[in-house]
Amino acid sequence: MKKEQSRKWRAFRSLTFSRRGIAIAKGLIAYILAFVLIFLKDFDDLSKAPQTLVSMMLIVIAGGPGKAIGAVIGGNLLGVLGLMVGAFNYFILSKLSPWPVAQAVYWAFAVYLLAYVKAKGFKWFGFSLFAILMSFNGMYTSHVLGQRFDSTYMKEYLKSYLWGVGINLFVALFIFPISSERELRSTLVRSLEHIDTFGMLISKSFLMIITEEEKATRDQLAQTIRADYGFLNQKLAETTLEINWSRWSLDDYRAFINKTRALQLALISTHSSLSSLEDVDDEIYRNTFIPKTLGPFNKVRLDMRLTIREIASAFGCHPLDQLPKCAWSSYLDIERQAAELKNPTRMARSNSYSSAVDDAERAAQLREVSERLAAEFSNDTEEESPEDPDSPTTRTISAASSPKIGTGNQAMSQSKPDSTFVNTPVSGTRDDDTEKDEKAIKEKILTERGPKSLLEDFAKFRRVQFELISKALTGGRLTNCSSTVQLHVNAPQPSIAEQYGYDHVRGRVIREYEEAKRESEIRKRKSRPISTSIDQPFGSPLRQESHDSDSDGDDDSSRALDPERMQAVANNHSLVRVYSILFAITQYVDELHEFHQRVMATDSKGRQARHRIHFHFFESLNKTQPPPGTVAANEEKDLSLGEAMAVLESRPHQKEKRSIWHYVHDIKVFLLGSDSVYAAKTSAAATIYSILLLADTTRQWFISYSMTGGLLTVVVALAPTLGQSALTFILQIAGSALGYLIGLALLEMFRNVGGYVFNPYGIVCLVALYAIPLQYLIYEQPKFFALALLALNATGVLIGTEWLYVVHLGRSNFDSPAYRTGKGLTSLAVAIALCATFQLLVARNPARRQLRKALAHITYLNLAYITLLQAFVRAVVPADPSHTVPDRAVETVRKELQRREVKLQRELIEIMPLITFASAEPSLSHKFNPVPPLRIIRANQAILDRLREARAAIGTTPFEEHILTNFVSVLSPYRRRAHRSTKTTLSLCAASLSSKLPLPHDLPRAETASIIPDFIHDALVLSHRFAMTPEGQRSIHENGEFLRYWQVNSPRSKTKGC
Q1: What contacts 682, CB < 8 A, 6 or more positions away?
Q2: What are phi and psi of 635, to 5 degrees?
Q3: How many whole angstroms separate alpha carbon 367 and alpha carbon 370?
Q4: pLDDT in tens, 44-93
Q5: CA–CA gap between residue 936 and residue 989 (Å, rounded)
Q6: Is the Cβ–Cβ distance between 101 and 90 less than 8 Å?
Q7: Contacts of 604 (CB under 8 A, 6+ apart)
Q8: What is the pLDDT of residue 331?
Q9: Is 612 in a helix, a strand, or coil?
Q10: How many Å is the Cα radius of gyration of the chain?
Q11: Reduced to 3 states, what is the DSSP secondary structure of residue 837?
Q12: Best-predicted range by mean pLDDT among 372-386, 478-492, 524-538?
């Protein structure tokens, strides 16, 4: 109990004395300022219609004055733009007041457009909300004034909203101002720290000494890094609107973010490759590659770590305390829910404050792991590890890596300093000479290592890796590489009986089937070995000799147990580890070096960039012109995607002729889209709500109850999916009811106190205490934003309205606080009932259905990406060396692939909240299980990571002719079969998700996994023969073409999900 209280107290203290606490305080100050201005008589006299002043409350709350300056400017500019659109609608609707039908038609159309904009993202929430409310004010005031237009009220409404904007800007600029540019630098530093820690954990995975705790941290970082990129782009967009005194321009920050993204992708690709091999104890890799590369690898790790630290220190700020609460964090929240399903005891701690405490725990755990890794790494680099495999350090690492993968020894799993990997002295005391020596060694390492020696040390590490690969291939240790061995690509296939066996009853295996299967495993096929004459390429499909030889003839299940195939798979694991880490570090080091050069750039006199004023908005308008002669400089000559694909596939391009019916079909698709249906429902609900004002029988009741506030409920409560509305209904009722009740209590508490009708001093003091937790929800718990917004707005509107009418205007017969509260709750009830009717009965869109459609759409996107990538691969890595395509076509497809990668990654992140909404929906049949959709999402993420890695490895430069002739041409049947199988599987999965029909239980599995051992065997045989030639030695040691080919074609373990 005491430990729990202590943990919560630490979390509260860290929140109070941090920048996050400043944001909450600034939001509170802006809210109090709005009350203070309303309570000032001189300020009220400035308005010709004082009752409109309460409108400023909403924009003060929703404008986010506690955020960074750029975010406040951007959000309030969108709000003002919405007010301008609303003022235009105000004028039109007021002029149409004599014709209620025309007024309703225009109102419905305006709400439809604004609701469609709102559906595009939370960024447009303020724009659409204020535009709708301002438009409705025009309809309402025109009927209150006798169906006529009065510009005074329109001006006063605009002035009231603009006063709220002024309060937001004043608080953001003059009260503890927070620069978005500084937050961007802090986020970059935090991302670099994540990259550094993630890189060290991947290094331990590469060395096979990672513990279970570190695996969990590594997997968490893999998700965090993806979320970091989205937050960096958000901060960059906010920085665009600022004027800063800084060393770097907006183009520099774009380059920094791109380099950070490149570092992240390099590590994520390696993580995806190595994580699939963690349960494999590869003896060849552990005993052959690790001991020889340990010394150079540790030097490279030290250089990379020091380079990252130097870049981070150049930004001149510390990372943010914790992961910010932004829309991208929902990607991590679902991972947390999946863990809770496996550990139900965590479900008890699901309230907002406890989740914040959990975030603090996770951040503390991440810092602890990072500090421990830094300590281990520091101890390892006190003395540079020799490259001799018989050295003590090498023997220590070999001993540390001897247990099976993922188990680790007990000392390591407990993270104690007596770990084998950490060379900590036994004695607890040191004399002064020892400390001085160690300090001198560390200073020497910091002086000699880092950015200066990064490229040189990596070249040594790469050279050692190439030598080991060459020895392994030429020595024939990886597979049987005798001259008489045959390639499996040309071997006869098993018979139908061997492949599928005999038919049997589902769920029951009969004895005859088992006996027949055993007999088929014993049968041998006759085949002929491949000639290896020296006058032809060693890998080409040559003529077969006339003599026969025996070869195995098993089906897939039996062949998987073949020792030769098992050895091939084990060898593939070794090569995947080596090539994945080597290719990733190559990309990582190049990008890190360029990143460091950009940050530390100097002029001709050797001086770094000076601080100066940067108008980032104008910098964003000035696009850098590409140098002449480049592809980007000749954009007018670029091909379209259709033309480029036609060139790559060697077929004529025929531009589709579109008739009027094509455009009609496009309009139909647009109108039936989920966003359009949501906008239509919002428009219909708002129109029906406005009929209460337009109809003669209910108009007086609507005006007397001042039910304009109910429209806010209609706009906020209606959501694209049913699950979102279920959550919003609860938050709407709780927030509005809480706000009205608190406002009623404060008015009654300070009524006729201190000589005031309503004592303003007491009200302001208690409102401040009441608003603190709600401001915390706004800035730290975005999922409760609607609750806090409606609660604060209801309190402000109730208190402000009573003060303005009773105190300022002197209407003693105005509604009492209790009566006004009852009217407000009545308006809320009418709006909630209307929204519930539309969400449940009109074009109902459950979140589960939307989730299924989104999963199918992402699978189709992956399928389309694979189709483009296939054409791209055939162009850059053709099976026929004589086949060439124009560079423009290749460049066009490459840009399209990169664009689709970004789109796929964004949609994978944005799909995660749908799982939360689906879980919130009530179900009469069975409870929603988030595990299957999570598996599908992870499978698509793994596919995207691997395809992105392959696309980056391919590049746009064609391979050398001897690689195409001796490898690609010979092994191209595997590529064709793998492409067909992959596309067929993805197409079936997407069709099943779209149609909501399960796949057949006896559907043949993807053939890709079954051909991997055959492909590995043939590739190793060809690599052995290639390494014996002069071209092979040059390709392995000098130009890296061999590394590039293996990285593109390294098979991975099959991905489960669909």
Answers
A1: 111, 112, 115, 118, 714, 715, 718
A2: -65, -25
A3: 5
A4: 888 888 889 999 999 999 988 989 899 999 999 999 999 999 999 999 99
A5: 10
A6: no
A7: none
A8: 30
A9: strand
A10: 34
A11: helix
A12: 478-492
- Whether 222 and 198 have beta carbons less than 8 Å apart is answered as yes
| Contact indicator for 284, 571 with CB cutoff of 8 Å | yes
Instruction: List the structure tokens of 757.
Output: 């009708």
- For residue 432, the SS3 value is helix
Lookup result for tokens 């909450």: 24
pLDDT in tens, 325-370: 333 333 333 334 334 434 433 333 333 333 343 444 545 555 565 5
- Sort 1015 into a burial class: Cβ within 10 Å, 0-12 / 13-18 / 19+: buried
DSSP symbols for 461-509: HHHHHHHHHHHHHHTT-SS---TTPPPGGGSPPPPHHHHH-----TT--
Tokens of 227: 């979320």
Type of residue at 810: G
Q: Taking Cα atoms as reference points, which of 491, 475, 477, 489 lies closest to residue 571?
A: 477
What mean pLDDT comes out for the span 25-41? 93
Q: Cβ distance 772 to 30 under 8 Å?
A: no
Q: How far is CA 69 from CA 11, 127, 182, 235, 653, in A?
A: 26, 18, 10, 11, 51
- Local structure of residue 230 (DSSP, 8 states): H
338 within 8 A of 934, measured Cβ to Cβ: yes
Q: Which pLDDT score is estimated for 305?
A: 86
Span 3-12, average pLDDT: 66
Q: Which residue has the higher pLDDT, 119 or 438?
A: 119
- Rounded CA-CA distance 619/609 in Å is 17
Whether 454 and 591 have beta carbons less than 8 Å apart is answered as: no
Q: Which residues lie across from 72 on neighbouring strands?
A: none
Q: Please report how many Cα atoms fall inside a 13 Å half-sphere around the Cα of residue 588, on the Cβ side.
A: 31
Residue 792 corresponds to which amino acid? L
**In sequence order, which ranges of 911-968 are alpha helices (DSSP H)?**
912-920, 931-954, 961-963
Coil, helix or strand at residue 613? strand
- Specify burial of residue 763 (Cβ count, 10 A radius: 0-12, 13-18, 19+): buried
What is the Cα 167 distance to its own chain's centre? 34
CA-closest candidate to residue 782, choices 228, 358, 337, 325 = 325
Q: Which amino acid is at 26?
A: K
Residue-level pLDDT at 4: 63
Distance CA 1047, CA 586 (A): 12
User: In one letter, which amino acid is 1029?
Assistant: T
Name the one residue in this structure whose structure tokens are 């755990």. 365
Q: Are 25 and 171 in contact (CB under 8 A)?
A: no
Strand partners, 526: 550
The Cα 580–Cα 590 span in angstroms is 16
* Alpha carbon separation from 889 to 108, 519, 626, 900, 953 (Å, rounded): 47, 54, 19, 17, 18
Query: Which tokens go with 558?
Result: 């039996």
Query: In the block, which residue shows the tokens 């870049």?
Result: 311
CA distance 751 to 75: 37
Angle between helices 454-474 and 563-599 (to 10 degrees): 170
pLDDT at 436: 62
Inform me whether the pLDDT recorded for 389 exceeds 70. no
Strand partners, 245: 613
The widest CA-to-CA distance across the chain, in whole angstroms, is: 116
Strand 243-246 vs strand 756-758: parallel, antiparallel, or unpaired?
unpaired
By 3-state DSSP, what share of the chain in percent is helix, strand and coil, each rounded to 5? Answer: 70, 0, 25
Beta carbons within 8 Å of 192's beta carbon, 6+ residues apart: 260, 308, 311, 312
How far apart CA 160 and CA 59 sit, in angstroms, is 10
Beta 243-246 vs 612-615: how paired, if at all? antiparallel
Q: Percentage of the chain with pLDDT > 70?
A: 71
Confirm if 283 and 149 have CB atoms less than 8 A apart: no
Q: What is the average pLDDT across 478-495?
A: 70
- Of how many residues is the chain composed? 1058
Mean per-residue pLDDT of the chain = 75
